[in-house]
Design brief:
Blueprint (H helix, E strand, L loop, with lengths): L11 H9 L3 E6 L13 H14 L4 E3 L11 H4 L12 H17 L4 E6 L5 H17 L6 E6 L6 H7 L14 H10 L44 H22 L8
Parallel strand pairs: 1-2, 1-3, 3-4
Helix pairs in contact: 2-7, 2-8, 4-5, 6-8, 7-8
This protein binds zinc ion (ZN) and manganese (II) ion.
Manganese (II) ion (MN) binds next to loops.
């Protein structure tokens, strides 16, 4: 069996052989979105792919090319779509990209898939893409295609949260470009993090409602929603360990026939 993990690095013949033998496909979904002055805009795409690769090292899985554009960044969870460089899709475009890609996997014989979402705002539209694909596949007579869908941060254990946030956890939405993502990036892609540029803004405070057009003044100018100080690679190791273990266990629970690597 080829030990390559990325679909993009495989020949079609190797891919076909792996799929025919029951390999699972992992589709990472991210965004191209500002992540403060210290992290790259590909952070959500890179981290969902990094989780996928860690899982694919443990089981017979192929990591598909990441969907690198996501649904529009929202002020309370991603800073907002007004930041230069945050390049987003309309909801139906994202859902239809996912629908089309999932149907293509199925058409070529894939029957097991995991979708790893790394951008909060994508959540409902990943569900829509999966739902549309499964509905159309049923019309085509393909009824045994199954998808496991997740947000990777939901696999953070309480034990890790206590260690990463000794002063209390601000919640996943405000964790944009903050301690979790910065720590994960310091672990996976240290050369892409500029620690000297980590902003010193306080935690953002939002009202219980939204305004349209966006009140850009509600969002810290840096684009970071809670302080990233305290981020380090050791915390990234703990977080990444939770994701590799938790996501692998979930996949093996739902797809018990997927082979575990020795
Ligand atoms: Zn992010
Ligand atoms: Mn995001």
């Amino acid at each position: 069996m080829s030990d390559r993990l990325l679909m993009n690095e495989m020949s079609w013949t190797t891919y076909k052989e792996r799929i025919d033998k029951g390999a699972l496909i992992i589709l990472p979904v991210g965004a191209t979105e500002q992540h403060g002055p210290h992290l790259p805009m590909g952070t959500d795409a890179m981290l969902s792919t990094a989780v996928a690769l860690d899982v694919a090292k443990k089981i017979d899985a192929i990591v598909a090319p990441v969907v690198a554009f996501g649904y529009k960044s929202q002020p309370k969870m991603g800073g907002g779509n007004h930041f230069c460089g945050t390049t987003s899709l309309d909801a139906d475009t994202l859902a239809h990209v996912l629908r089309d890609v999932i149907k293509e996997f199925a058409r070529h014989g894939v029957r097991k898939m995991a979708l790893i979402n790394g951008h909060y705002e994508n959540m409902m539209f990943t569900i829509e893409g999966i739902d549309l694909a499964l509905r159309e596949l049923r019309y085509d007579g393909i009824k045994d295609f199954e998808v496991l869908r997740l947000e990777y941060w939901d696999f953070t254990t309480q034990e890790t949260l206590d260690k990463v946030f000794p002063e209390g956890f601000p919640g996943y939405a405000l964790e944009h470009a903050a301690v979790m993502e910065t720590s994960l990036m310091l672990h996976h892609f240290p050369h892409l993090v500029d620690e000297s540029a980590i902003p010193t803004d306080d935690m953002a405070h939002f009202p219980a409602y939204d305004m349209y057009p966006t009140r850009t003044g509600w969002v810290p100018c840096s684009g970071v929603l809670s302080p990233a100080k305290g981020a380090d690679a050791a915390k990234g190791v703990l977080l990444a360990g939770d994701y590799a273990k938790g996501v692998t266990e979930a996949i093996l629970k739902e797809f018990p026939n997927v082979k575990v690597k020795g």
